[in-house]
Write a structure and sequence with these properties.
The structure holds 2 protein chains of 2 kinds. Chain A is of the alpha+beta class. Helix content of chain A is about 45%, strand content about 10%. Chain A has 7 helices and 4 strands. A 4-stranded mixed beta sheet of chain A has the order 2-1-3-4, covered by helices on one side. The longest helix of chain A is centred in the N-terminal third of the chain and has 14 residues. Chain A is elongated and about 50 Å long. The mean pLDDT of chain A is about 95. Chain B is of the alpha/beta class. Chain B is about 40% helix and about 15% strand. The longest helix of chain B has 19 residues. Classes of the chains: A alpha+beta, B alpha/beta. The structure holds flavin mononucleotide, iron/sulfur cluster and FE2/S2 (inorganic) cluster (2 copies). One FE2/S2 (inorganic) cluster binds next to loops of chain A.
Chain lengths: ~160, ~525
């Protein structure tokens, strides 16, 4: 880990390690800060919480939200669930993959955008939906999507 | 005098550009020298009209629907600050037929008030229920919940009063109230709307639970897909603490109740209550064996009430207006009202709160206006990814837990997903199995392995080489999952799969009698 990452991890641990059941809040704090949970952080976290490395690793890998690789500068989550499917989400997903030249869980070659599937954003009356850097966007069309991708700069 | 203009901050409104609209209205007003106060309310739940801008006038709140930033100048030109006509005007919002015909008990304030105004909340009936609960004996308060007939709105429809009674009567040095705000079902957003648009009603409901059962600490487990809801809750909790509705001395009762928000991490199974508790304890969300039930040994081994957001949000009105008032709505053993969510391929998608008993058809056509595409509605899925697919012939089923159960379906959390006649039901069945495979916690074999086998088998059926034999394999797999799974993820995934097969056999290469069509 670089020094910035170590500082974030130490910081999260200092603030949250005495919280009952605090492992998820700690992992969230780290990912909020760094965009992912660096695998090197696992031993440090395990030691601070008196857990085994396997236990911490098990938690990180159980949850879809936690990433162990640094994402692109922006993260685009595309809803794959039923209500969005009923409004053409599959076609939209295909268009996005084609446009970005990546599959789900991948980052564009220029490091700008990471593409992720998500199972419902609670925006099912405005389907299909996506979320860009934590902001929801509904009634997506190919055009709206293009504008959205353009709004965060080149991605390919 | 400054004119009040409402622009929703609900995620759905934001997803359609509400933030830009609010900014444009502020800028345009400044440019013209008009004095406006912009209130960021929740959504009224008429999602096809979002962003819905409202203006307060002497004759009531006038709405302008589907507003884009490009419409803002023309709104000012038309005199919208006085509620004047404009092509996008929908007239008096409260008189809109979509809203006027609803029975909004739980959602009474939704879209009406500023979600973070403690005083607006109080002015529209807030905190009265909690005051009444404080004045009651604990056992009487719990009995009132039973009398109201309230059943859990998270999906399983378990009587809330019975759960509370167990927690009340289990002696312990610490008890917990846990709010399940994981809302993982596709086609649902009533929890999200509540947290974003009227968070105090959830806080009040949880405080009532604390006071009634003797629990001093509550957790709200919010899914990570809801960042706006999380921020809204944190802000509302801070205000409630400051104003004394939470904390060491809840509304002067001498009782403590503290609330903490915890964020989920994208696992559907963590909506299952025991998996949620594991997650709150900082572990993987593996489902626990029951017994013991959480009401006896829940979070950190202590007696714990786990309820859904809407279950909690239904309590303030029950304690304000009385258990009988609430119980008098509904049909059969489904008492009260349900915030129903109309979603997917539907023209007028949104939130409809109605007493139990309303037929599905009325929701789909009278409220929903039919499909968004204008094509015939072919199938609807009610109750999330574990709910059955219903064909047209079942649209007269009333929304009632027992009526749905009798046709092998489920009301669940009240989400309705609509599909038009372009849907491929074999693909939907495959998706149901795939979702189970992705989200399985892995504790039991029928779910973990069965779902993966299920996907493979449906692929074979779609390929169409030996449909008859493969359908038999699928049916037997479903049977194993139904009977051999520890929780409802594995145990109910067969419902969407088998209902698709039963009602839409032609999509699987079968004829109407379920026999393979000769190639
Ligand atoms: C796979 C699975 C997912 C669930 N997801 C949720 C959920 O997202 N929200 C919820 O409130 N209940 C969910 N439940 C139901 C909970 O286990 C539990 O019954 C509920 O939280 C109890 O609260 P209630 O009685 O107020 O409904 C789920 C159950 C299962 C089996
Ligand atoms: S049915 Fe599936 S999700 Fe439920 S306990 Fe078993 S493996 Fe876990
Ligand atoms: S099962 Fe671990 S991330 Fe999907
Ligand atoms: S199904 Fe896509 S937002 Fe709910």
């Amino acid at each position: 880990m670089d020094s910035e990452s170590s500082r974030s991890v130490d910081d999260a641990l200092t603030r949250l390690k005495s919280l009952p059941g605090g492992l998820l809040p700690i992992l969230h704090a780290i990912q909020d800060e760094l965009g992912y949970v660096p695998p090197d952080a696992v031993p440090t976290i395990a030691k601070a919480l008196n857990l085994s490395r396997a236990e911490v690793h098990g938690v990180v890998s159980f949850y879809h939200h936690f990433r162990t690789e640094k994402p692109g500068r922006h993260v685009l989550e595309v809803c794959r669930a039923e209500a969005c499917q009923s409004m053409g989400a599959d076609k939209l997903a295909a268009q996005i993959r084609e446009r970005l030249g990546v599959d789900f869980h991948e980052t564009t070659a220029d490091g700008n955008l990471t593409l992720q599937p998500v199972y419902c954003l609670g925006n099912c009356a405005c389907a299909p939906s996506v979320m860009l850097d934590g902001e929801p966007h509904g009634r997506m069309t190919a055009e709206r999507l293009e504008a959205l991708i353009a709004s965060v700069g080149a991605s390919r | 005098m400054s004119v009040k203009v409402y622009v929703p901050r609900d995620s759905s409104a934001l997803s359609l550009g509400a933030e830009g609209v609010a900014r444009a209205i502020g800028a345009e007003a400044a440019r013209r020298g008009d004095s406006v106060t912009i209130v960021r309310n929740g959504s009224r739940g008429m999602m096809w009209l979002e962003p819905l801008v409202e203006v307060e006038t002497p004759s009531g709140r006038i709405g302008y629907g589907s507003i884009a930033t490009a419409d803002v100048a023309s709104l000012f030109d038309a005199g919208f600050l006085e509620g004047k006509a404009h092509p996008k005007s929908i007239g008096k919002v409260d008189s809109h037929p979509y809203l006027a015909r609803q029975e909004r008990l739980c959602f009474a304030r939704m879209g009406v008030i500023d979600p973070l105004s403690y005083d607006d909340y109080a002015a529209l009936g807030g905190w009265r229920g909690l005051r009444n609960a404080i004045a009651m004996k604990r056992s009487d308060a719990v009995a009132a919940v039973t009398t109201s007939g309230l059943r859990g709105r998270g999906g399983a429809a378990f009587p809330t009063g019975i759960k509370w009674k167990t927690v009340l009567e289990t002696a312990a040095d610490q008890k917990y109230i846990v709010c399940n705000a994981d809302e993982g079902d596709s086609g649902t957003f009533s929890d999200r709307m509540t947290m974003e648009g009227d968070p105090f009603v959830l806080i009040e409901g949880m405080a009532i639970a604390g006071v009634a059962t003797g629990a001093t600490k509550g957790y709200i487990y919010v899914r990570s897909e809801y960042p706006h809801a999380e921020r809204g809750l944190l802000a509302a909790i801070a205000i409630a603490n400051e104003r004394g509705a939470l904390g060491a001395d809840v509304l002067g009762s001498g009782q403590r109740f503290d609330l903490e928000v915890r964020r989920g991490a994208g696992a559907y199974i963590c909506g299952e209550e025991t998996s949620l508790l594991e997650s709150l304890e900082g572990k993987r969300g593996m489902v626990r064996y029951k017994p013991p039930v959480p009401a006896i040994s829940g979070l950190f081994g202590k007696p714990t009430v786990v309820n859904n957001v809407i279950t909690f949000a239904s309590l303030p009105i029950i304690f304000d207006r009385g258990a009988e008032f609430y119980r008098d709505y509904g049909m059969g053993r489904s008492r009260g009202t349900l915030p129903i969510q109309l979603t997917g391929n539907i023209k007028h998608g949104g939130l409809v709160e109605k007493a139990f008993g309303i037929p599905l058809r009325e929701l789909l056509y009278d409220y929903g206006g039919g499909s968004a595409s204008g094509r015939p509605i072919r199938a609807v899925q009610v109750g999330g990814p574990l709910g059955a697919f219903l064909p047209e012939s079942q649209f007269d089923t009333p929304l009632d837990y027992e009526a749905f159960a009798s046709i092998g379906a489920m009301v669940g959390h009240g989400g309705i997903v609509v599909f038009d006649d372009t849907v491929d039901m074999a693909k939907m069945a495959r998706y149901a199995m795939e979702f189970c495979a992705i989200e399985s916690c892995g504790k039991c074999t029928p779910c973990r392995i069965g779902s993966t086998r299920g996907v493979e088998t449906i692929d074979k059926i779609i390929a169409g080489r030996d449909v008859g034999a493969d359908v038999a394999v699928l049916e037997s797999l479903c049977d194993t999952m139904l009977h051999g799974s520890l929780c409802a993820l594995g145990g109910m995934t067969p419902f969407p799969v088998l209902s698709a097969l039963k009602h839409f056999p032609e999509d699987f290469g079968l004829d109407r009698d379920g026999l393979a069509v000769a190639a």
